[in-house]
Design brief:
Pfam family, one: DAGK_cat
Number of strands: 18
Distance between the termini: 20 Å
Number of domains: 2
Order of helices and strands: EHEHEHEHHEEEHHHEEEEEEHEEEEE
Number of helices: 9
Shape: globular
CATH class of the largest domain: Mainly Beta
Keywords: ATP-binding, Kinase, Nucleotide-binding, Transferase
Structural class: alpha+beta
InterPro entries: ATP-NAD_kinase_N, Diacylglycerol_kinase_cat_dom, Lipid_Phosphate_FormReg, NAD/diacylglycerol_kinase_sf, YegS/DAGK_C
GO cellular component, one term: plasma membrane
Protein name: Diacylglycerol kinase family enzyme
Oligomer: single chain
Radius of gyration: 19 Å
CATH architecture of the largest domain: Sandwich
Helix content: 25-40%
Largest sheet: 10 strands, mixed
CATH topology of the largest domain: Tumour Suppressor Smad4
Length: about 290
């Protein structure tokens, strides 16, 4: 049997011991030997994954949870040290949407097949530290909303908690601009997405030009400067399901520099504030597809 190391997040609201045992049973049923990891803190999770990646033969590590769990795992593994798989069990599961995973059973069947592709990640550096992201970095309005999400509302409303936080930020709007520069191009805007994936907030395609397997990040200034513009943009995105991002441009191999004083989020978790720089790490590790 092939060994797979299964990382759960017991502190997540979507976790339960019953769900964990069900997933382990399903993995055994397809001929795998799952070894569960149940870290109680973020530090424990990162240490456990880092230790696994020291093995002579790169391990297969399965992140069970939402996008935050996936982000913890990619920030714990050095480049070229492991194969990553995911089983969605969270609020938004944008990563699962990006891969076209329809259900937990679909994810398990993909893990059993073991088809892999090398994927890229972004890496942000600021006074908050250095941290990777696999989906997107948001600077400005969406990061302000992420920072304003209350845990009690998230437990009660799920994704609706982000909408509520966004409405609160509209009442306390930040008019300051940021400047993004990359490869000779410069833009001034209120808010910005640096995308490594096309999906955002679940089923919505915010930057269709982006992709996990592309050798570049997409820089997408958002087309609003005030709260009414943001509300109109968000409503249009929800109704249409996608946005063309006409002002987006590719980073190529160049470092992205963002100046100004605006909050930052990486894969849906707050990461201090700008200024910051972002670079691409191509062929970071293998991803089960």
């Amino acid at each position: 049997m092939s060994i797979v190391h299964v990382v759960f997040n017991p502190t997540s609201g979507s976790y339960s011991s019953r769900k964990a045992e069900q997933i382990l049973t399903q993995l055994r049923a397809v001929g795998l030997d799952p070894q569960p990891l149940l870290p109680q803190t973020l530090a424990e999770s990162m240490q456990a994954v880092a230790e696994l990646c020291k093995q002579a033969i790169p391990p297969t590590i399965i992140a069970v949870g939402g996008d935050g769990t996936v982000n913890t795992v990619i920030n714990s593994m050095p480049q070229g040290s492991a194969t990553l798989g995911i089983i969605p069990l969270g609020t938004a599961n944008v990563m699962a949407r990006e891969l076209g995973i329809r259900s937990q059973q679909d994810a398990i069947q993909r893990i059993a097949r073991g088809t892999v592709r090398p994927f890229s990640v972004g890496e942000a550096s600021s006074t908050a530290g250095v941290r990777r992201f696999v989906l997107m970095a948001g600077i400005g309005a969406d990061a302000a909303a992420v920072a304003d999400v209350r845990s009690s509302e998230k437990r009660l409303l799920g994704k609706g908690a982000y909408v509520l936080a966004g409405l609160r930020r509209c009442l306390d709007w930040d008019n300051r601009l940021i400047t993004v520069s990359c490869g000779g191009q410069t833009r001034r805007c209120n808010s910005l997405i640096v995308a490594n994936a096309s999906h955002y907030a679940g089923p919505y395609r915010l930057v269709p030009q982006a992709g996990l397997f592309n050798p570049q990040l997409m820089v997408a200034p958002l087309p609003f400067s005030g709260p009414l513009g943001m509300l109109r943009f968000t409503a249009a995105l929800f109704l249409r399901g996608s946005y063309a991002a006409p002002d987006a441009f590719a980073s190529g191999g160049d470092t992205i520099s963002i100046t100004g004083d605006k909050p930052v989020q990486l894969d849906g978790d707050s990461f201090g504030a700008a200024p910051l720089t972002i670079r691409l790490i191509p062929d970071f590790n293998n991803l089960i597809v």
